[in-house]
Amino acid sequence: MALQELTYTFEAANPQPFPVEWMHSGVVGSGDMEVMFTKEDLGGKVNFKIVTPVTGFDEVWSRVLQKFVNESGISDVNVEINDNNATPVVVSMRLRQALQDAKKEA
Amino acid sequence: MADWKELEAKSFYEATARERAIGMVDEGTWTELAGPKDRLTSPHLPVLGEAVEFDDGVVTGVGLVGKHPVFVASQEGKFIGGAVGEVHGAKIVGAFLLANQVYDKIMAECPDEIEERRPAVVISFETGGVRLHESNAGLLAHAEFMDQIQGSKGKFPVFAVIGSKVGAFGGMGFVAAATDVIIMNTYGRLGLTGPEVIEQEMGKAEFDSADKALVYRTTGARHKYIMRDANYLVEDTIGAFHDCIGEVMDLGYAAIEKMRRIGNEELVDEQLALAELSVELHPKDSRDVWAYYGNENPEQLTEITTAEFLATAKRRP
Amino acid sequence: MTVEVMIGRGRDAIDMIVDEGSFKENMVGDTPIPSDIGPGAVVGEAAIEGRDVVVIANDAQAVNERFPVVYFGVIGMEEAYKMAKTVYTMLHQDADKPIGEKRPLVLIVDTPGNGPGKQEEIFGMNKATGAYQLALAEARKAGHAIVALVIGRAISGAFLCHGLQADQILALSPEFSTMIHVMPITSISRITKIDIERLEELSVSNPVFAAGPQFFYRLGGVDELVENIEDMRPAIARHIAEVEDRKKAGLPTGPMYHGELGEERGGRMLRRKAIEAMEAEYAKVADQYV
Predict the structure, then answer these.
(1) CB nearest to A2's CB, from B1, B41, B47
(2) ipTM value of the model?
């Protein structure tokens, strides 16, 4: 089964600019993922692109990512994820960590 | 990224490939090359349904150790076991090509300063060798590594640093053997054939791959240190590896060339004599070899701390 | 036409390739190579069309009584060091000769692996195979023409050991049951959980994982497929001449050249891109380092 690509676009209620130009974090281990944030003027939106071997969880991804956008308020950023069977809990945690690292770096 | 002191104090064994890479060079000098931003993912994994990584499982870049430009390639064992595919392999080759470029530049512009500015390549091994999903390309990349290592002789040193979970096995086991200097922590493992294959070839009575202590004694750092297959055994911190590289560079290239175990006819004769010794001794266990080299209580050598081991272990003369 | 399979016939292959009666086993020039070790490695000097060459071949019929896992063409510690000594002996004897006068080295390849035993791991089989590869690379860089011919099996690390450091690599075509791979497709299927049929379908467009000399050809790992047994000898002679011409002209040969060939043949399309990305990014920061 080939890898599949999922894309989503969300917009936060209280948008905040992403703190750095780009941020990479994580390792694509089993049950884990990496994420890359790249700043771009998207009219306040956030674009997600997920590359994953897992199929049939489009809805779960959508919910997890939307929640992250709402809670963090990030905007105008592309988010690329290479996933290798990370659970929704791990996905949320990795995204929050990466954002925290970005804030620290800024 | 944690601050510098934290990074240098961190366990090498626990560290990610990127932490190991950054920590091998001096503070603030690291530049990643062909990093995640380049998104050089494997073109071969998607069709086989295998997850991809933006750096293809190896962190490559450059930093300084003193005045020495040091090109680092650090493998990530969590990503497909650190295995070598097309892009992963090309990035390691790239580190060698850049070291050559820098060497040539120094020799052209300031040959008097070669000793203090001599470049180096450092490979942090964490791999079983060829990546099955793109095995043919991975195999051909190994041939390029060996070619590059031979090409580095007489120009700049190549370091193998080994001390992560996966160890250095398969083809990368002989790539490591071909380098100039091998530095390991106590968790490091280096070999060619994995324990399961040895068991399959020889039978469980001769080699039980489930016996972790036996597996460690056969390929582990302490055995390699006694055999002089590892030049240095250091504490398990990133800083200890970094410091060791700096100290070795300070010894000068003539001293470094003497650290090799293979690479000329004299060394081949020395190793051939060891192969003959293996027939004579017919060791059931590495401990038999440790005893042969004068270690009276070989079973103790894996029970003590690294510092105690370094103080007491007798090595192959 | 009946196809004559060459697997297990390394010694026969030497006779078919070199001038009749010219092979002197365990001699390089007037230096003897230890004859009592590494029976799986057949080494010596011969002539091809009257010109002296050094030959290193596998003898898959030999059994190394002292190393229980070394038989069937397996390269053990003794075999690898014997092969390395042969290369160094040639290298030293020809050190002062120019390219074209240095003896060519012919590698006849039929090996399923490196010694996979306990003794080997304890004493370091990785050093033995590494030592031979470094010797070959040194001889190649010094100007000797090294041509390998896969007549049977060239499996994974053993092909790296004995073959892939050559200037140019030939293989008998798949009709001769020539095997070049890291793992057979059945094992890849088991590990990736993809049907063999599907894998075979995929390998039509991407040669990167499938087993067989034709796939290595497309990746640049094999220069030429030899279609007939009778062609082995002229093909080797032709490639020796070609390698020497390339060396005299300063053109690349060996593993890095095979990398370029892999791109030319459409097999390895990202290798150069990754290298160039590193070079371009380094150029921007070079001032900080030198």
Answers:
(1) B47
(2) 0.98
Q: Which of B52, B74, B76 to mutate to probe the A interface, most A CBs <10 Å?
A: B52
User: What is the residue extent of each domain of chain A?
Assistant: 4-105
Q: Which residues of B touch C207 (CB under 8 A)?
A: 136
Cβ-based neighbours of A56, under 8 Å, separated by 6 or more:
none
pLDDT tens, residue by residue, A54-84: 999 999 999 999 999 999 999 999 999 999 9
Cβ neighbours of residue B80 closer than 8 Å, sequence gap 6 or more: B50, B57, B131, B133
- CA-based R_g, chain A, Å: 13
Complete domains list, chain B, with CATH: 4-190+229-261 (3.90.226.10)
Residue type, B30: W
CATH number of C10-288: 3.90.226.10
Contacts of A36 in chain B (CB under 8 A): 36-37, 39, 54
Instruction: For chain C, say whether B36 makes contact (Cβ under 8 Å).
Output: no
Question: Comparing C-alpha atoms, which of A87, A63, A84 is closest to residue A10?
Answer: A63
The pLDDT score that the predictor gives to residue C191 is 81
Q: For residue range C212-252, list pLDDT tens digits in order.
A: 999 999 999 999 999 999 999 999 999 999 999 999 999 99
Residues C9-64: tens digit of each pLDDT? 999 999 999 999 999 999 999 999 999 999 999 999 999 999 999 999 999 999 99
CATH pick for A4-105 out of 3.30.420, 1.10.3470, 1.20.120, 3.30.230 = 3.30.230
